[in-house]
Structure formats: C-alpha cells, structure tokens
Amino acid sequence: MKILIADDSIYKQDILSAYIKNKFPDADISQSYSFNSTRKQIFENIFSLILLDMTMPTFDSNDKSATVSESRNRPLAGKEIISSMAYRKLCSPVILVTQFEVFGRHNQLTSIDDIFNEINGLYPDIIKGSVLFDFQSDSWKSKLDNFILNMELK
C-alpha cells in the first residue's frame, strides 16, 4: 500500500507517518511539503491513499528558484489539488487532514465542513473524508481509522 502524506508541517508529517506505520507496517509512505511538490508526486505516482492538508505554500522552502511572491501560502491548496486530480482523471482516495476549522478572512470565512461538502459534491470518487487534526488530543485518530477502514486500500 502506497500512501502520500502532504503537509507543510514536518512535525505533523512525523506524527501521521508514525501512526500510519503503526497501523499498516507494510505501508510505503511518501511525503510532500508544498502545493507543487504534492501535485508532482500525485501526477507521477499511483497512491492507495493521500492524506492531504488544506493549506500549504506553493513551493518547498528549499526551492531557491521561487521568488518571495511566488512562495505565498495557498489557503485552499488541498481543494486545488483535488480539482487538478479530477481534471487528470486521477482517483486516488483523499482524506483531508487539517488543523483549522475555518478558512479565509473577515467576512469570507468558510468552515472545513462546508469546503468538504463542496468538494465531495464535485468529486465524490476522490474525497473520502475530513479529519480535524489536533496536536493536543488523539481524537483525530479514531476518525481517521473509520475512514481508512471503510476503504479498500491496495
């Protein structure tokens, strides 16, 4: 089983990776840290599961070719990645794993539930769930387990 963990937080990546390895010892885990590196991984590989953060920078922080304006944070990177997967007819199952309950600013706030419902309505063959990750609690683990157990991962 090949799993991609796409998140710009190395600490969160390590926690997710250790948890997945504990549950699925034979899992082959790949990691990506930005919008561009995640798209590249998805376009070049077939994954049994993608754990996808919603907000990521455009480029990896070590990408010296990126200018300051290009390396901006993408608040809805996960949504954009799923849209580009659908465009290319790539249907690896995706679970959103985010630390934020709302996205946007001021009067343009959108909840993760609303974003998930929108994505699920557009791409039900790709999106399989949404998990609110919390460094202080283990409650996210049971929700992630439920989604994974309801999938047939190869």
Q: Any overview of this molecule?
A:
This protein has 154 residues and is an alpha/beta fold. The chain has a single domain, classed as Rossmann fold. Helices cover 37% and strands 21% of the residues. The strands form 3 sheets. Strands 2-1-3-6-9 form a 5-stranded parallel beta sheet, with helices on both faces. A hairpin with a 6-residue loop joins strand 7 (102-103) and strand 8. Helix 2 (35-44) packs parallel to helix 3.
Give the helices and strands as they follow along the chain: EHEHEEEHEEEHEH
Distance between the termini: 5 Å
Beta-strand share of residues: 15-25%
User: Over the alpha carbons, how many angstroms does the gyration radius reach?
Assistant: 15 Å
CATH topology: Rossmann fold
- Looking at the structure, what is the overall shape? globular
* Main beta sheet: 5 strands, parallel
Put simply, the count of helices is 5
Superfamily (CATH H level) name: Response regulator
Average predicted local confidence, pLDDT: 86
